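Reference record
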Amino acid sequence: MRLRWTNEALKRLQEIEEFIAMDNPSAPAKFVNKLISLAERIPENPKKGRIVPELSIEYIRELLHQNYRIVYLIMGKSIEVLTVFEGHQLLKKEDVSRSINPVK
């Protein structure tokens, strides 16, 4: 299985890194690398993540790491990371609706 990152997800990773750097300039790269590392393991077991509660769609799942959510779409033989964001926020369907066209 192949892993792809959406522009939205990459943008969010950069925002997370910048936000963490405001409090601790030495910590953000390590934290963002951990998020990336977790996402890179998704293809090994795509259904490991839980179904996103706000959407209840079988093929949109998420992994949790500390306060962050890595939301991904299972598309046949590929995985697309849709977004990464702080866990206290709710995922809105319109935030991922452009990417919801699963290949079964």
